[in-house]
Predict the 3D structure of the following.
Amino acid sequence: MLDLTLAQQLKSSGLEWKPTAGDRFVLPVADMEEEVFILSNVIADVHEFRDGAVIGFNGTTEWALDSVEQSDVVWFPREDQLRELLGAAFVRLEQVTGGYAVTATADGREQRFLDIEAERAYARAVLARLGATRV
């Protein structure tokens, strides 16, 4: 998974987010930065009773915030979303010693982006692509 710094760089680079079920995000405030939230259409919890477990469907949980502005959160795009963002610029993903390399076109030439996880390597390629499209 991406770390908060890399996700914030994507956001600062102008990456647009249209939230959808399954998307991950973080509230970048003290004591909340380690909590990764996932957008869902329905929250399901397991409730333990003396007669057995029941799966309950809830709109919110007791500790939940009422709401938060989308601009106040940081999206953690998944690997498949990052690959889709690269589009035709994506060339290949390969496992290398110590992690992964994504090869993509940026600034009109092929470049390799290395990181310990494939998702993070994709994010670095997207960052380079965003920088190239802003020129």
Q: What stands out?
A: The longest strand covers residues 99-106. The chain has a mean pLDDT of 88.
